[in-house]
Amino acid sequence: MPRRSDDQERILVTIPISHFCEKARWALERAGLDYTEKRHIQIVHRVAVKRAGGGTTAPVLRAAEGVYDQSRAILLYTDEHVPAARRLYPAQQPDRSEVLALEERFDTVLGPQGRLWLYHEVFKDAKRFAPWNLTGVPAWERRVFPFVLAPAKIIIRRHFDISDRTAKEAAWRVDEESTPWPSACPTAAATSSASASAPPTSASPRSPRRWSPRRSTARRCPSPLTCLRRWSRPCCAGARTPQASSRCGCSARSGRRRE
After folding, report:
1. Domain limits at 62?
2. Which of 11, 64, 160, 252 has its CA 20 to 30 Å from the CA of residue 168?
3. How many domains does the chain have?
4. CA 69 to CA 36: how far, in whole Å?
5. What per-residue confidence (pLDDT) applies to 7?
6. Are residues 100 and 79 in the same domain?
7. CA triplet 37, 38, 40: central angle to 5 degrees?
8. Is residue 5 a contact partner of residue 12, using CB atoms and an 8 Å limit?
9. pTM for the predicted model, two decimal places
10. What is the pLDDT averaged over residues 235-254?
């Protein structure tokens, strides 16, 4: 159960490049809920989430109704603010069980394995990708980032057991997870995890756009369950991207944030 909070304004504490944080952003925007996002670099984020009432991981949402310190908890919270027909988690079985199972699969396999592989690749040239990691963080964190980068890399490698071997295994697991499920895959709740955790291409990265802590209201997704079932079809499943999903007449994500 979420802990009570006296704050009237919704505060979302995140790490800029975390796909679990992107999952929370996506759900809040999809539900049309106003919130202020407070971004922090790795390691420093632990202090921020503790102050917000969470544990040691991001995202954490602090709202008038309480403190929600897991991405699934945040998605369940957003479901309370939308009509029943637009909720991410169906009320009826067996659809609800399928939704929860697929989300669990993304959150425990695809998400962590994709994160491990991503950190391994980014650490080869961390300065090149620093603009994305620093997007929207406080100015003082941007200034100290060059000095804490080296020890942060050591801590993150140890925490996630990152090595050439584990990264290779993680890449294999991600490829395995990219195959479509044999049955329909009903959950818009897990869609954000899949799309946000997809590894970047080898193309040169573009500079991140300007970021604002105030989020805009996302476009509505008329039928999350039907949308994801279409998204899991073979024509979409290979790429696992909104662009590929649009070929089936659906969208893997109902809106995109501005940075």
Report:
1. 11-84
2. 252
3. 2
4. 16
5. 56
6. no
7. 135
8. no
9. 0.67
10. 39
Is there a contact between 75 and 189 (Cβ–Cβ < 8 Å)? yes
Nearest to 22 by CA among 190, 176, 230: 190
Omega cis (within 30) before 59:
yes
Place of tokens 């140890």: 158
Domain match, 66 and 153 both: no
User: How are the residues of the chain apportioned to helix, strand and coil, as percentages rounded to the nearest 5?
Assistant: 50, 5, 40
14 vs 60: CA distance, rounded Å:
7
16 falls within a domain: yes
Distance CA 134, CA 210 (A): 11
Within the chain, strands assigned E span 11-14, 36-39, 60-63, 66-68
Q: Residues 129, 22: one domain?
A: no
In a domain, residue 3? The reply is: no
Residue 211: both structure tokens together: 């970021």
pLDDT tens by residue, 136-193: 999 999 999 999 999 999 999 999 999 999 999 999 998 887 665 544 444 444 454 5
Q: Do 80 and 121 fall into the same domain?
A: no
Tell whether 209 is covered by a domain. no
